[in-house]
Specification:
Layout lengths: L3 H28 L4 H23 L9 H21 L3 H30 L1
Helix pairs in contact: 1-2, 1-3, 1-4, 2-3, 3-4
Length: 122
């Protein structure tokens, strides 16, 4: 387990990364394609789909509890997709940095939660 202050900071970062992921999808959607209908569909539909999937399977109080493998796969898809969205709108370094920070944050949070689960079982 990591120290409480680091745990709290990492959890805050995780939340901010989630918001940034959904925001980047919105940004990409409104910049992609041509015409208002396409912009609305992609700019609102893409983050709405990601938010729905996140709430159903990845959130701390997710509607459905699924094995960790599937949670991690979905998180990788959302964060990876968000990084690609940032990259696609022309901010290559920011997209790469987002992917790295999201991966490190998710790995640390997962390891910390798993350690907490094993500590509680003991």
């Amino acid at each position: 387990m990591i120290p409480k202050p680091l745990h709290a900071a990492n959890e805050l970062l995780a939340f901010l990364l989630e918001l940034a992921a959904f925001g980047s999808m919105t940004w990409w959607g409104f910049r992609t394609g041509s015409g208002v209908p396409v912009h609305l569909l992609l700019g609102l539909g893409t983050p709405a789909a990601a938010i729905t999937l996140w709430g159903l399977f990845c959130a701390p109080r997710a509607t459905f509890k699924v094995p960790l493998f599937w949670v991690m796969l979905l998180k990788a898809a959302v964060f990876g997709g968000a990084a690609l969205c940032v990259y696609a709108v022309g901010h290559h370094a920011l997209g790469i940095a987002f992917a790295i920070v999201a991966a490190l944050n998710t790995a640390l949070a997962t390891a910390d939660r798993e350690a907490l689960v094993h500590t509680r079982r003991a």
